[in-house]
Write a structure and sequence with these properties.
single chain; globular; 2 domains; mainly alpha; 5% strand; 125 residues; two-stranded parallel sheet; 5 helices
C-alpha cells in the first residue's frame, strides 16, 4: 500500500479497529532526506540506515529487528542472528534461482518471495 494512504488509514481509523492497531516503520538512506519531497511525513520517526553499502544491510536488519522487538511482546534473537541467516540465504539464492530456472537479475517481487519462503521451509524455519 502507498505510504501516505497507509498513514492516513492508520491515523483516521476508529480506535480498536484493525488499521488503528497496525505498527509501521519508515526508513530512508539519509536522515531528513524525505523532507525535500514528502511534507506529509512531518512528525514521523523516520529511521536512517545510511548509504554505506558495507554496513547498510546490517543497519537495516538492526532497525527492523529492534522495531519488531519494541512493538511486540515476542522474544527475538539479536540482529547478528538475522544477519547471519540473510548471508546464508543470499549465498544460496543463485542455486535456488538456477534450480527454478530464474534469472537472479530479473526476479519479480513474487519470485523473490517464493525463493525466500522455499528456503525457509527447506532450512527448517
Amino acid at each position: 500500500m502507498e505510504l501516505g494512504i497507509f498513514i492516513g488509514a492508520h491515523r483516521f481509523a476508529p480506535s480498536k479497529s484493525h488499521n488503528s492497531r497496525k505498527k509501521y516503520i519508515v526508513m530512508d538512506s539519509e536522515p531528513y532526506r524525505y523532507q525535500r519531497f514528502i511534507s506529509d511525513l512531518g512528525g514521523q520517526d523516520i529511521r536512517a540506515y545510511g548509504t554505506n553499502k558495507d554496513g547498510q544491510v546490517e543497519a537495516v536488519i538492526q532497525q527492523v529487528r529492534d522495531f519488531l522487538r519494541t512493538s511486540s511482546r515476542r522474544k527475538l534473537p539479536g540482529p547478528d542472528f538475522f544477519h547471519s541467516r540473510y548471508i546464508d540465504f543470499m549465498t544460496e539464492l543463485p542455486i535456488i534461482c538456477d534450480a527454478e530456472h530464474l534469472d537472479i537479475q530479473k526476479l519479480t517481487y513474487r519470485d523473490y518471495l517464493d525463493c525466500v519462503l522455499g528456503w525457509l521451509v527447506g532450512s527448517g524455519e
